[in-house]
Design goal:
31% helix; Rossmann fold; eight-stranded mixed sheet; globular; alpha/beta; 12 strands
Length: 324
Amino acid sequence: MSLLTLKDVHVTYGTGAAAVPAVRGVDLTLEAGQKLGVAGESGCGKSTLALALLRLLPPSARISGEILLDGEDVLTMKWGRLRAVRWAGASIVFQGAMHSLNAVRRIGDQIAEPLLVHGLATPAAARTRVGELLEHVGLPAARADAYPHELSGGQRQRVMIAMALACGPRLIVADEPTTALDVMIQAQILRLIEQLVAEDSISLLMISHDLAVLADTCDRLAVMYAGRVVEEGPAREVYDAAEHPYGRALSAAFPRIGDPAARRAPRGLPGDPPDPSALPSGCTFHPRCPVALEGCADAAPELREAGPSRRAACVHVVPVGSPS
């Protein structure tokens, strides 16, 4: 059984004529011990999808479909079960550690809180566990007495990871875990995440706009555009040779070390992401697509097999088994 399965997941903000679709019919699977990356431009729905996994969206959001964690549907769980699952089953590392941490509480108290709330440790045992967690993520145990503003951006991100690990989850959802960090610190945090996932046998779902980071960190990669997954497959294959024109455009936006062509400016993608409240007809990418055909505005292509363990939603993709 897969650890996490998403079936036809939709997320809509507002109701009636004011309803805005943020996630539209997403199907994804994450196996135990696997690392799955979700990429796309700002506004594509990837962070909304991450929050939907644990029902952390505001009341104005309506979620439908199935989100199965270890076979249990998160969307139909009673409050008590959901509360436990949010820590012991899956935990999340939010964007922007400074905004996620309580500025007036010591970080040790914040890391210990889930242990105490769920009755997993006595106060004395929780203090010991906090020290172990801080050292596990590369910080001295003595930093437990520090306040968030006394730490650097990279240190605060390590605290967020320690907090996510506190109750021993099977899945960590990392939403842009390296946002606003310089390149060297980003590399340190990414290596830390990889190390912890391997050592603790944890599955990872990482959200990012950076295909290069996800290709280097994850096993599989899903590319989202306008609320839908338009391509999915082995991370390095999608990064190196995307089947969907949007995936190719994202990949081309990042220079590659050792590639003489990378000396030139990275290629951009003309136009802006569509307004979710007024999506284009047919394939939502067709107004920006360099290879769009006349019929692309009429019908949205479904995800189809594009090779071993690969799927893409584009009329230019020849389904596996079809005559070329």
